TrEMBL record:
It holds the Pfam family PNPOx_N. Residues 6-114 form the Pyridoxamine 5'-phosphate oxidase N-terminal domain. This is Pyridoxamine 5'-phosphate oxidase N-terminal domain-containing protein. SUPFAM superfamilies: FMN-binding split barrel. Coiled coil: none annotated. It comes from the Bacteria.
Length: 145
């Protein structure tokens, strides 16, 4: 399993949408904001059967993920991930967990949807958080001169 810095793990615990990028058949990237939870070294997403990005993900078995701090856009993490699996088992309960995490109301209007829980394993992580930590103090600002 990929070693991920504590700064990134802490960032993943913050509540924000994650953008998932998948490829359409014609090679064009499709990007969608989704809710997630990072647990046990994996990203867990929730969607519905019929979502285009899910179809692309199941076909290609890979995705790009992007997190951007809504309060500080210089804090970003880009992840290349592989699909571990999808399941409908426990997907409705998982959606309820995400409702609570994102402080949203229940999704009664989605009762007719077949919910799908998605598990992604990070393969590569590029982060401004790591870069900033590695380069702290290396920059001269006008105040330092």
């Amino acid at each position: 399993m990929l070693e991920i810095s504590q700064a990134n793990v802490d960032f993943f615990a913050e509540v924000m949408p994650i953008v998932i990028g998948t490829k359409r058949r014609n090679g064009v990237v499709k990007m969608d904001p989704v809710w997630y939870k990072y647990r046990d070294g994996h990203f867990w997403l929730n969607t519905f059967r019929g979502a285009r990005w899910l179809e692309h993900l199941e076909r290609d078995q890979q995705a790009s993920l992007l997190l951007i701090d809504p309060k500080d856009m210089t804090r970003t993490v880009h992840i290349e991930a592989r699909l571990v699996g999808t399941t409908t088992e426990g997907a409705q309960e998982h959606l309820s967990e995400l409702d609570e995490r994102y402080q949203m109301g229940a999704h009664e209007h989605l009762e007719d949807q077949v919910r799908v829980k998605v598990q992604l394993e990070p393969l590569n992580v590029r982060s401004t958080l790591d870069w900033l930590a590695e380069n702290a103090g290396k920059w001269n600002t006008s105040a330092d001169q």
